[in-house]
Amino acid sequence: MSAIAPRVADPAWAEERSRSFNRDEIVARAETLAARPYEPPQKVGDPFRALGYDQYRDIQFRPGHAIWSGDKRGFVLELLHSGFIYDTPVDVHLVENGVEAAVRYDPSLFAFGKNELPHEPGARLFSGIRLRYPINTPGYLDEIAVFQGGSYFRSVGEGQVYGVSARGLAIDTGEPEGEEFPIFRAFWVERPAVGARIATVHALLDSPRVTGAFTFQIMPGHSTLMDVDATLFARAEIGHLGLAPLTSMYLFGSMEKPRFPDYRDAVHDSDTLTIAEAGGNWVVRPLANPTSLQMSAFAANDVKGFGLQQRSVRYTDFKDLEAKYELRPSIWVVPREGWGEGVVELVEIPSDREFNDNIVAFWRPSRVLKPGAPMHYAYALRWGRPLTESGLARVKETNGGLTLDRSRQLFVVDFEAPLDVETPGGRKGADYFPDEIEPSVWASAGEVANVVGYPNRATGGYRASFELDTSGVDLSELRLALEHHGAVVSETWLYRWTG
User: What is the four-CA torsion angle of 82, 223, 490, 285, rounded to 10 degrees?
Assistant: First the structure.
């Protein structure tokens, strides 16, 4: 966070090379770029690439140089320095009244701490951009969005701290041959109107096999909303494409706790993949930290929404005073105009460190992206508290272990009643769950036994449990839903058990 700073009369970032601008020109640039052979981006020099994590953190943008500071535009823009893992420079342009101008690098924009680095005015040493806006306290500028590294960006809602990230595009994620990582080569940031609630950022994406033009309209608040408009142009055919990719960290929760001798009860930025299917069914898949790479695909033709949620939102869920995992945002993707046939893919990567992002989720279209056939799509992103709008009983918690005789796997799933629309912020009580409710359980392998369900009077929710005989089984896909006279009245819980 940073206090609002006075306007600088002669800013070091003074603009240069003015020219006309509109979004169609970004699309045209992406199309032109796709017709040319791919040129790998230049990297910054060794003094910057050799910086360690703490050394890089010593490089801070000086708040007094924030762009639009003192203009009463609501937003201010800050520039991020290259170095450490952020070794690919980007170009930054400002747009005002249909005219763009490049932002000039000057070392006086930054405080370098104890670092002794070469200072070269006019060099290409920006690695990204950061937007600030007062979402928590009037008159105080909070970080609300960062675009930095590859095609990564992230945001938060009111009272939250950074966690899950998004990307512009994913290619070949989880494939044996390795993943291709597109990058944003340049940004164009429109000057907001006085008192504006929306900031607009354009970006040019490039990669060996694809280029793209992206526009982000960002509205910060209790939940920060982003409208994303994208057009892709292929240099070569791409079959494994990931739209609206999300990246997060899941080290352990209750199911993995025995493997992690840690004082905390859980460590993760997200704990659940949630999918709103076209037919009205809501699928909930608790995340896992597997012992081997796991890739899952969920049928999602004309998907209504999907996202990585942090459903654990209490301090007691984690007991970490510094990381504040309970304040990490959930992210929700809402496709615009229908995306057609495709699947939501989930990639879970083994990890032994909480600093490693090991969860990826995205929508994979059935369509293959080919040269000469651009792909246009749009979607909304919501960064904030986990969604509660399904109208169904909601999966609250998943626990498990071995049965008393240690011969079977035990799964315990707790549900909570839907929100009570007549009581803002309240939920329906245990009487929402009538006696006729029955848990319906299915397993792709292994034998299911001892399916039990009953209202949880302690929480006002409902508990379902079952056992799975895994004799001779290496992997089993599990499904559980609550039914009332044959109708599903809960989210559908999915889980992949691996031996």
Answer: 0
Residue 392: name the closest of 287, 482, 454 by CA: 482
pLDDT in tens, 168-224: 999 999 999 999 999 999 999 999 999 889 999 999 999 999 999 999 999 999 999
Please report where in the chains the tokens 């990890």 appear, as a residue: 351
Tens of pLDDT, residue by residue over 237-267, are 999 999 999 999 999 999 999 999 999 999 9
Q: Selecting from 2.30.180.10, 3.20.20.70, 2.60.40.10, 1.10.357.10, what CATH number does the domain 394-498 have?
A: 2.60.40.10
Residues linked to residue 132 through DSSP beta bridges, in sequence order: 76, 143
Q: What is the mean pLDDT of residues 363-385?
A: 97
- Beta bridge partners, 158, equal none
Structure tokens that stand for 308 in this block: 């990585």
| 408 contact partners, CB below 8 Å, separation of at least 6 | 402, 449, 467, 468, 469, 470
pLDDT tens track for 316-357: 999 999 999 999 999 999 999 889 999 999 999 999 999 999
Identify the sign of the CA torsion 226, 227, 231, 232: positive
Q: Is the pLDDT of residue 12 over 80?
A: no
Mean predicted confidence (pLDDT) in 81-90:
97
Average pLDDT of the residues in 451-466: 92
* Residue with the larger pLDDT of the pair 225 and 403: 225
